[in-house]
C-alpha cells in the first residue's frame, strides 16, 4: 500500500515537473532453492541483506518496497532519473558478492523489469503490471538480466488468458467456429 501511494505521488510530481521517473520490478532468481536448502529463516536473512543493500543505493533510499515473497519494487524519482544507469549498476553490484548464510557463502541473482513514467503510463496498476511484464521478459532471456518495457509487450499469462477466452467463445456456439481434421497415424 505504501508503494502504491508513494508511486501515485511521484507520478503526479513527474507530470507537474514534466520529467520522467522509472519503476523497477525485481525478482530474485531461484530464491526457492535457498529456502528449500537452508530453511525459511535463512531466506529471511537473505531478503533483509538484499533490502538493506538496495535501500542504501543513492537515489533509492526511501523508495524500495518488498511486494511479497522475493519481489521488490523500486521507484526512481524524477530528480534521480538522470542517474538511472548508475542506479541499475549499483543494484547489480549488490548481487556480485556472496551472502553469508548458515556459515557459508551463497550467491543470488535477480531479474529486473523497468518501465518509464509517464511515457509508458501514468496509472499505478498499469505501471506495476508493465514492469512485471518486463521482468518476466528478463527471466525468459536467461535470468540475472534487466529488461526495459517495450510498448505493446504482453505477458505469456495475458496471451494464455486471451486464448482461453477465445476458445471458450468459439466453443459456446455449438462449436461452429471449429473445423476439425483427422489425420491417421500409421
Query: Portion of residues in helices?
Result: 40-55%
The run of helices and strands is HEHHEEHEEEHEH
Strands in their spatial order, largest beta sheet: 2-3-1-6-7
Principal-axes geometry comes out as globular
Sequence stretches where pLDDT stays below 50 over 5 or more residues:
none
Structural class: alpha+beta
The largest β sheet comes out as:
5 strands, mixed
First and last CA, distance: 60 Å
Describe this structure in words.
The chain is of the alpha+beta class. It is 45% helix and 20% strand. It contains 6 helices and 7 strands, in the order H-E-H-H-E-E-H-E-E-E-H-E-H. Strands 2-3-1-6-7 form a 5-stranded mixed sheet, with helices on both faces. The protein has a two-stranded antiparallel ribbon with strand order 4-5. A hairpin with a 2-residue loop joins strand 2 (64-68) and strand 3 (71-76). Helix 2 (31-38) crosses helix 3 (40-55). It starts with a helix and ends in a 15-residue tail after the last helix. The model has no long low-confidence stretch (mean pLDDT 89).
Question: Could you outline the blueprint of secondary structure elements for this entry?
Answer:
Blueprint (H helix, E strand, L loop, with lengths): L1 H16 L3 E9 L1 H8 L1 H16 L8 E5 L2 E6 L7 H11 L4 E3 L2 E3 L2 E9 L6 H17 L5 E3 L7 H16 L15
Helix pairs in contact: 2-3
Summarize the entry for a quick read.
The chain has 186 residues and is α+β, with helices and mostly antiparallel strands. 45% of the residues lie in helices and 20% in strands. The N and C termini lie far apart (60 Å).
Amino acid at each position: 500500500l505504501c508503494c502504491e501511494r508513494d508511486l501515485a505521488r511521484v507520478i503526479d510530481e513527474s507530470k507537474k515537473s514534466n520529467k520522467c521517473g522509472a519503476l523497477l520490478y525485481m525478482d530474485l532468481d531461484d530464491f526457492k532453492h535457498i529456502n528449500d536448502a537452508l530453511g525459511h529463516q535463512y531466506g529471511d536473512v537473505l531478503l533483509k541483506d538484499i533490502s538493506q543493500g538496495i535501500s542504501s543505493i543513492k537515489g533509492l533510499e526511501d523508495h524500495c518496497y518488498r511486494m511479497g515473497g522475493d519481489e521488490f519494487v523500486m521507484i526512481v524519482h524524477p530528480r534521480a532519473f538522470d542517474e538511472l544507469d548508475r542506479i541499475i549498476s549499483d543494484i547489480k553490484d549488490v548481487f556480485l558478492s556472496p551472502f553469508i548464510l548458515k556459515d557459508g557463502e551463497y550467491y543470488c541473482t535477480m531479474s529486473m523489469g523497468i518501465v518509464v513514467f509517464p511515457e509508458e503510463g501514468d496509472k499505478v496498476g498499469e505501471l506495476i503490471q508493465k514492469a512485471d511484464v518486463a521482468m518476466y521478459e528478463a527471466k525468459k532471456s536467461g535470468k540475472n538480466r534487466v529488461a526495459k518495457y517495450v510498448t505493446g509487450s504482453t505477458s505469456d499469462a495475458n496471451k494464455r488468458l486471451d486464448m482461453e477466452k477465445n476458445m471458450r467463445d468459439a466453443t459456446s456456439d455449438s462449436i461452429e467456429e471449429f473445423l476439425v481434421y483427422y489425420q491417421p497415424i500409421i
